[in-house]
Amino acid sequence: MKTRAFTLIVMLLLSAPLPAMAATGVALVHGTGQQSNAYNDYWTSEMVESIRQGLPASSNLLVVNCNFEKYMWDDAAAGCLATQLYNFVTSMNIDDLVVITHSNGGNVMRWILSNPTWDNRYPTIIDSTRWVNVVAASSAGTPLADAVMAGNVFEASVGWLLGYQNDAVRMQQTSWMTYYNDNWLLGTSGRPSLPVGFWNIVGTDVETAVWDSDSYCGGYAENLGLEITQEWLDGCSDGFLNCSSQNAAGSLWFYDHNRTNGSEPLSHNQSRRKCFNLDVILRNDI
Amino acid sequence: MKSIILKFLLVLCALTNSALAQEILNKSREQMYFSQYVAPDADQHLKDTGSNEQSRVFFRKVSGAELNRGAELVIDAEKAVIQISPLDRSENGRRLVNAEIPRGMTLSNGIERRRVDDDSIALHRKSQGLRENFPDLYGRAHVMRVPENMGRGKFTLQASGNAKADAEYIVYVLDKHSDIALEVQTPARRFARSGNLVLDARPRGNAAVSLESVSTTLIAPDGKRYAVAGQMTTNGYRVNWPIKVASPSVPGELWRVEVRSTLRNARKEPIERVAVIAADIFAKTAQVSQIGSSAQDLKLSVDVQQAGRYEARVLVFGRDTAGAYKPVLLAYQADWLDAGLREMQIPIDQARLAASGLRGPYQVRNIQFLDQGRMSVLEYLDGSWILQ
């Protein structure tokens, strides 16, 4: 946290002075999937309303709904996210935006931060953003996507691919993300740093036991499923992503057990829910 | 004879055009500039670092008929993970959906045979959470783990005769605890259509492991597969293949370089490994021909073969109090360029440089030049262009 505060001070010193009355806002960016009601379906109202309590003006909160089944650069993904963020910061006069992303939402946000000349709204969004709190980002992809995509490309003699996976799954194969990280995205090792802080919260494990009430936060069946997918992953994972992927871009904010209540790990499902004080940690960072 | 030559040339033109007439995704004609500070203490650059993949995975397509007979899998280490996924097919231009795996499949190690939905094997069966959480990933797939007490070695995955003979499946095996891997290295992740695909492959891990056979396939975004010629070396394999492909590129979508191998472990068992590298096969739509610098900007002379939206990014370095050069600023410029000799001028914000705390003379050391519309990185240039 010290490093984080120091970096902030350096960035503030380097940047133009903030206006005296900065308007702070928060945007919640979901992960893979096509959302029309991310407030209830992705984050749940308990999580969103708890985070909202950290805002000086409670109306300055945006829950993004986009189609993140598409590639990150697609109009339905980054284009949609840019529309919603741009309209939010301009209509609410937000000049101090904290973005909270989950999973693949971190990639779509990083596309915007890494490609400022792609769209004339991107610079406004970047300049308005204080930092991004990146929960369980799939920055280096996941071996689960490798497994499900393997061999799933066929002759397109009839004009369409027979593969049944969506573009976002294809994009999150590990070798694909390595390519994008090396050529189109910023913030990974050896690449230029991102224009704003990109602070990773890393989920390290999945714990499920029928007698342990903690296993039920976010849904017992869902957590059990994630414990199973750990078979594909490294010793440190949240059931969907290796810790190394979650911390591949930007900077480490914290590993779950270092800050959560009871040092509980956050599974990939729990890290978007009101579990183990995560909501309060995010709220207090606004 | 003349008509044959003419037809040949027409076909060649058609192939070339289909490859080059690539969709332009970003057609904006707006000139845009942006600059940002970068962290001065982090080692950073703009360059293609190539790839180094180590795979403990193999996968192959099997038919229902093969599953009925029994598909053999040689697994080097205990507790491997196996996934079987049904594949859709096309018939007379129609998509035939295959969403189910055969019921009652078994896994045998030659001593005992267990049903794959036995609690000791089936990961999938234990929870509907996978399907609920990740329908994109697990809507159809069946995941199992070889139980420790079934050991390692040769296994047979078999359907009980109820798999449709012409149905197709992908069997994917992660030999997670094996120390045998196939390593594939490439010098770049981007290959020009007019250039060569270059890679090296070799076994890694156990010293006794040997490379028995290997083959490489380049798979286009449209699914078309190109056999890539390579040569065996001393317990290794090298490819230096002139790229000849007709398939078009799709903006942002990557090609797959699939290297399939059979290795022999210390027990002389055949161990399969498949490594996959994602790469861009791009057309050289423009080229930087000259670079000039002044105190305020960097100028690129660009030979544009195909009109489009292009972007240049430059990484600027300055000196710290000890005189050491450190990265300080990343500047971008994007513009629509018509075909012909053009110029891109990337402004360098002198006020921001001065405020950075690092001193001049400032230098541009890395340039990345992109076809933004077609989503290809065309060039990385290293040098020392002094901004004065």
Low-confidence stretches of chain B: 10-19
Q: What separation lies between the terminal Cα atoms of chain A?
A: 14 Å
- Overall outline of chain B: elongated
Biggest chain-to-chain interface with counts? A-B, 66 and 86 residues
- Would you list the SSEs of chain A in sequence order as H and E? HEHHEHEHHEHHHEHHEHH
* Estimated helix fraction of chain A: 25-40%
Specify Rg of chain B, calculated over alpha carbons. Answer: 27 Å
CATH level-two architecture of the largest domain in chain B? Sandwich
Please give the structural blueprint.
The complex is a heterodimer of chains A (286) and B (388).
Chain A: H1 2-14, E1 24-29, H2 38-43, H3 45-52, E2 61-63, H4 75-91, E3 96-102, H5 105-114, H6 122-128, E4 129-135, H7 143-149, H8 167-171, H9 174-183, E5 197-202, H10 220-229, H11 243-246, E6 251-255, H12 256-259, H13 278-283
Parallel strand pairs in A: 1-2, 1-3, 3-4, 4-5, 5-6
Helix pairs in contact in A: 4-5, 4-6
Chain B: H1 2-20, E1 32-37, E2 51-55, E3 57-63, H2 64-69, E4 71-75, E5 81-87, E6 89-91, E7 94-96, E8 106-108, E9 113-115, H3 129-133, H4 135-138, E10 142-145, E11 153-158, E12 168-174, E13 181-186, E14 190-192, E15 196-204, E16 210-219, E17 225-228, E18 231-233, E19 236-242, E20 255-264, E21 270-282, E22 286-293, E23 297-304, E24 308-319, E25 325-337, E26 340-347, H5 350-355, E27 359-371, E28 376-386
Write up this protein.
- The complex is a heterodimer of chains A (286) and B (388).
- Chain A is an alpha/beta fold and 286 residues long.
- Chain A contains 13 helices and six strands.
- Chain A has helices at residues 2-14, 38-43, 45-52, 75-91, 105-114, 122-128, 143-149, 167-171, 174-183, 220-229, 243-246, 256-259, 278-283; strands at residues 24-29, 61-63, 96-102, 129-135, 197-202, 251-255.
- In chain A, strands 2-1-3-4-5-6 form a six-stranded parallel beta sheet, sandwiched between helices.
- In chain A, helix 4 packs across helix 5 and helix 4 (75-91) packs across helix 6 (122-128).
- Chain A starts with a helix and ends with a helix.
- Chain B is mostly beta strands.
- Chain B has three domains: 57-177, Jelly Rolls; 178-282, Immunoglobulin-like; 285-387, Uncharacterised protein PF16024, DUF4785 (Immunoglobulin-like), CATH 2.60.40.
- Chain B contains five helices and 28 strands.
- In chain B, the strands form seven sheets. Chain B has a five-stranded antiparallel beta sheet with strand order 1-25-24-27-28. Chain B has a five-stranded antiparallel beta sheet with strand order 2-13-15-19-18, with no helix packed on it. In chain B, strands 14-21-20-16-17 form a five-stranded mixed beta sheet, with no helix packed on it.
- The longest helix of chain B has 19 residues, at 2-20.
- Residues 10-19 of chain B have low confidence and may be disordered.
- Chains A and B meet through helix 6, helix 7, helix 9 and helix 10 of A and strand 1, strand 3, strand 5, helix 3 and helix 4 of B.
